[in-house]
Specification:
It is built from three helices and three strands. By secondary structure, the chain is α+β, with helices and mostly antiparallel strands. The protein has a three-stranded antiparallel β-sheet, covered by helices on one side. α2 packs antiparallel against α3. The longest helix is centred in the N-terminal third of the chain and has 16 residues. The radius of gyration is 22 Å and the shape is elongated.
């Protein structure tokens, strides 16, 4: 009477699993988002050799080339600004970068 319990695999369970597969943004999608952000960013006129600008460019390159998701804040010392950014591989999240005023930066 203590035999092994039989389980039944339903077709619905297989369908749900297929729906849950993650589909990351393609390189072309990541490049388009990054290009739009960098075009706006370069129009601001910050110096390319500023340490935070150099770091931001590395983050953008890692996102486009390697698909590395990241988010954070970079202080733009001397400009009273903080750069808040989000780079996501998930298709439903739009990557963005915003300059915020910060009197302590």
């Amino acid at each position: 009477m203590g035999g092994a319990k039989k389980t039944k695999t339903s077709e619905k369970g297989t369908e749900n699993k297929a729906k849950k597969e993650k589909h990351d943004k393609s390189i072309a999608q990541r490049l388009e988002e990054a290009s739009n952000i960098m075009t706006q960013f370069s129009g601001i006129g910050l110096p390319d050799d500023h340490p935070s600008v150099v770091e931001f460019k590395k983050i953008v390159t890692a996102y486009v080339d390697g698909g590395v998701s990241s988010s954070g804040r970079l202080k733009l010392t001397g400009f009273q600004r903080v750069l808040r950014y989000t780079f996501s591989k998930q298709p439903h999240i739009i990557s963005s970068a915003v300059l915020e005023f910060d009197p302590h930066a």
